[in-house]
Amino acid sequence: MKYITKFAEGFMKLFQTGGDNFISWMTGIVPVVLMLLVAMNALIALLGEERVNRLAQISAKNPVSRYMILPFISAFMLGNPMAISMGRFMPEYYKPSYIASQMQFCHTSNGVFPHINPSELFVWMGIASGIKTLGLSQMDLAIRYLLVGLIMNFIGGWVTDLTTAWVCKQQGVTLSKTLD
């Protein structure tokens, strides 16, 4: 009977811990993401959805803007995970590529722009503390990480485009490369 009681207590503790974690999200990241969503939608309403769609369509035509510039601006202005939402303005064909580039940028920009992905700042700080211990510049590392990240965004987006084309052909699916 003692083991059943211990199991039941442990089982309930699991859900209590999950509930505590959920409440911490409700007072931490959820309001921030909600406010960013409100700000982004307000900005889109002020600019006009047609202009934002046109900007995304122009960005979609050029791989440099699609995989480097738009992900950078989105991440810098909105942070992770809100930066992903700018993909909604991309044509269907380019959405997977945009998301691939966007997620890579959110990780590789932490050293220079820690506000973009604060939840992973501990990874950057661990690496940077090792660099500091060696007597090397943390900012040099951050800039290199950012630049390599931008190049990898481009390559990752391009490879995702090729993969998307291959899967579409294999599955007999046609995705639009323009906004309809």
TrEMBL record:
Pfam families: EII-GUT. Keywords: Membrane, Transmembrane, Transmembrane helix. The chain crosses the membrane at residues 22-47, 67-87, 142-168. This is PTS system, sorbitol (Glucitol) phosphotransferase enzyme IIC2. It comes from Streptococcus ratti FA-1 = DSM 20564.
